[in-house]
């Protein structure tokens, strides 16, 4: 029997494992949507480790929240949310990262990570790959809706999804 998933704030000493989880998740999620040269770049894990180290310890990210999901002491998911780079009316928190390794999809780790980095009552926004029906369904379940904004990042089409502050309250009734 599997032990339960636990979620906790990320620590600097988690950065290498967080990078491993993010790279694995990108490879599982974006293969076929993103260029293989990006996904298989030997420098990708080191770059992601530097990112996580900064996101957890650098003063620039002081208003951000980073969390990890673990099972049996192994990190299986990562999340990061914080103020948007360009503030927009209607939401003050941006979900920058939420990945759970494919073997743990459906375990509750994603929902727990989301709630760990964004208060369930707060308005928020995120960008999600399109197509990525599984992720989009997950975000819809948590009150996020496409707002019509589209961008292409590293060759991947993304749509923005936004959750109004009242969305979660309506969903609970």
TrEMBL record:
One of its GO terms (molecular function) is acyltransferase activity, transferring groups other than amino-acyl groups. Pfam families: Acetyltransf_1. It comes from Agromyces cerinus subsp. cerinus. Keywords: Acyltransferase, Ribonucleoprotein, Ribosomal protein, Transferase. PROSITE patterns: GNAT. InterPro entries: Acyl_CoA_acyltransferase, Bact_Acetyltransf, GNAT_dom. Residues 5-166 form the N-acetyltransferase domain. Gene3D superfamilies: 3.40.630.30. This is Ribosomal protein S18 acetylase RimI. One of its GO terms (cellular component) is ribosome. The keyword Ribonucleoprotein applies. Signal peptide: none annotated.
């Amino acid at each position: 029997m599997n032990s339960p998933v636990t979620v906790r704030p990320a620590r600097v000493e988690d950065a290498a494992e967080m990078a491993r989880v993010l790279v694995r998740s990108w490879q599982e999620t974006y293969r076929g949507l993103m260029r293989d040269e990006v996904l298989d770049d030997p420098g990708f894990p080191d770059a992601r480790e530097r990112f996580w180290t900064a996101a957890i310890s650098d003063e620039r990210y002081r208003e951000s929240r980073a969390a990890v999901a673990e099972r049996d002491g192994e990190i299986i998911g990562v999340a990061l949310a914080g103020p948007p780079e360009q503030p927009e009316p209607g939401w003050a928190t941006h979900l920058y990262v939420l990945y759970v390794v494919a073997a743990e999809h459906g375990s509750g780790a994603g929902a727990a990570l989301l709630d760990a980095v964004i208060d369930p009552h707060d308005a928020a926004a995120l960008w999600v790959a399109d197509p990525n029906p599984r992720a989009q369904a997950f975000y819809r379940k948590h009150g996020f809706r496409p707002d019509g904004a589209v961008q292409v990042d590293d060759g991947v089409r993304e749509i923005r999804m936004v959750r109004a502050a009242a969305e979660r309250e309506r969903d609970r009734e």
